[in-house]
Amino acid sequence: MIKKLAHSVALATAMAFAWTGCPHKPYDVTAIPPPRSAITDYNPNTIPSPPPVQYSQPVTEQPVMEKPFTMSDWAPVPGALDAETIHFSFDSAVIRDSERTKLQAVAAALSSDKIANVMIEGNCDERGTEEYNRSLGERRAEAAREALVSLGVDENRIHTTSYGKDKPVDPGHDAAAWSHNRRDDFVLLHPKTGA
Q: Is a pLDDT exceeding 90 seen at residue 39?
């Protein structure tokens, strides 16, 4: 009985060895590196920097923004364009053909004076509300602006404002005074020193 039991134990042991075999490392298998926390000589400063990015076209600087127009940076040239004032029909912002030569004269003045700008001041007669006349004065100034641009003046050199009925040149209250006050005045501007 003891012999039988010893024989069974021996047989079981032999089978266990035969089943598991000898431990060995498999061929062509890459070992997995230990986790980073386990690496004792890790230094982030020794990681090489990536190569610089090469651009196919040179990188250009951002464009310099032009300084916005501020009237305080400009000085009016007194009387320079007084003779070129244009006049309008009642309740109209349409430039009459008879006024076109004056606009050409303004364009010529700006063409010969490259540093100058112009302010167009739209005006109305005394009839109508303040708001309506402000709007009409602005439309009159814009009409002259568009005409100057069509004559080749750079639009960035032309500025507009409306005085409505606030700046009459004729204080009268009749048709003659009203016709004088329905107008666009042109003010030639030069940059102030240091502006």
A: no
Q: Which fold has domain 71-191?
A: 60s Ribosomal Protein L30; Chain: A; (3.30.1330)
Cβ distance 118 to 159 under 8 Å? yes
Which tokens go with 193? Answer: 């020193």
Domain extents for the chain?
71-191
pLDDT, one tens digit per residue, over 104-133 is 999 999 999 999 999 999 999 999 999 999
Q: Please tell me the distance from the alpha carbon of residue 118 to that of residue 185, in angstroms, as a whole number.
A: 10
Query: Per residue, what are the HEC states of the chain?
Result: CHHHHHHHHHHHHHHHHHHHCCCCCCCCCCCCCCCHHHCCCCCHHHCCCCCCCCCCCCCCCCCCCCCCCCHHHEEECCCCCHHHCEECCCCCCCCCHHHHHHHHHHHHHHHHCCCCEEEEEEECCCCCCHHHHHHHHHHHHHHHHHHHHHCCCCHHHEEEEEEECCCCCCCCCCHHHHHHHCEEEEEEEEECCCC
